Amino acid sequence: MSKSCKGLAMELVKCLSESDCVKVEKRSYKDCAGEKCPSISSECVGLRETYFNCKRGQVDMRARIRGNKGY
Predict the structure, then answer these.
(1) pLDDT surpassing 60 at residue 67
(2) What pTM does this model have?
């Protein structure tokens, strides 16, 4: 279960590394992923929401019994 969000994390890092927030503004990945920055594409915002929901599912007791959804 600890690896069920790994694919999403890699896609999010790839998407953020191609965004203007990291390239032009030279900000860290954490800063760009943590806030609603206008220089992040809508694809990255969607990946961020999905990744956060995946991580939340890892600590949810109901999801721990059934298993987290793999993406």
Answers:
(1) yes
(2) 0.75
Query: Which phi and psi angles does 63 have, rounded to 5°?
Result: -75, -30
Number of domains in the chain: 1
Report the helix count and the strand count for the chain, using DSSP H and E. 5, 0
Quote the DSSP letter at residue 1.
-
Q: Which residue has the higher pLDDT, 67 or 33?
A: 33
Is 15 a domain residue?
yes
Domain extent for 56? 5-63
Is residue 3 exposed (0-12), middle (13-18) or buried (19+ Cβ within 10 Å)?
Answer: exposed
Paired tokens of 4: 């069920």
Q: Is residue 69, in this structure, part of any structural domain at all?
A: no
